[in-house]
């Protein structure tokens, strides 16, 4: 029996789907579907009760000329389990339910009870307000407070929408919200990191790399002006990391050493001047011969 459960069917090499004739059926043809009774009902012919959830083989069709805000309404045909009388019911998108149409009456309709309860509450409220003026005043205050809360919420929504519309295209909203809630310490840290990154880029962009090229005519070597480039080092994992100064040209290393000496000299001079300003005299201790 396994050969009957395959999903792929054989198509011959000369198969042409355009040669298959199209079936022409009626525009609103009925379909046979399997469904369960959406509500408990009673047959109007024999009085048989049909409980909710009983399964039927029903015919389904689209109701012509009826819809609810563009939503189609479907009609279902079933037969009574006792007398085989035809029973029809339709979908009700307004109440998200079903309505009995012909052949049976529904035992319980929830929306009718809701309407009755609402009407009873409204009549009781009117009667209480007629007998008690203070209660009427309290009800009016509650209604006015509810209206004010609704207006405030609506105003907040409008202000938020207007603020979102003013944000330019291409700007991430989450980034702006993060900047608004950013603490001063985070802002200072981010600014310091940006300055450090800028300083590093400036230092490495000023490292000269000397290069020479031969003239096309072959008469001699022509010196090329020094170009500013960033030194990039590629090494394998596990290698010993070389010194950065060993990778620089001779002129650059001399310039760096001269700069370091000048900085040390300035620091020593500043220390000496500070000691003189404080009235401290430095005396060299003589060596004791033993």
From TrEMBL:
The annotated region (Disordered) lies at 96-143, 174-229, 267-290
Keyword set for this entry?
Metal-binding, mRNA processing, mRNA splicing, Nucleus, Spliceosome, Zinc
GO terms assigned for molecular function: metal ion binding
Ligase found in the keyword field: no
The signal peptide here is none
Tell me the residue numbers annotated for binding Zn(2+). Answer: 43, 46, 80, 83
What this protein is reported to do is described as: Part of the spliceosome which catalyzes two sequential transesterification reactions, first the excision of the non-coding intron from pre-mRNA and then the ligation of the coding exons to form the mature mRNA. Plays a role in stabilizing the structure of the spliceosome catalytic core and docking of the branch helix into the active site, producing 5'-exon and lariat intron-3'-intermediates.
The entry sums up its family as follows: Belongs to the CWC16 family. YJU2 subfamily.
By what name is this protein known? Answer: Splicing factor YJU2
User: What organism does the record attribute this protein to?
Assistant: Hericium alpestre
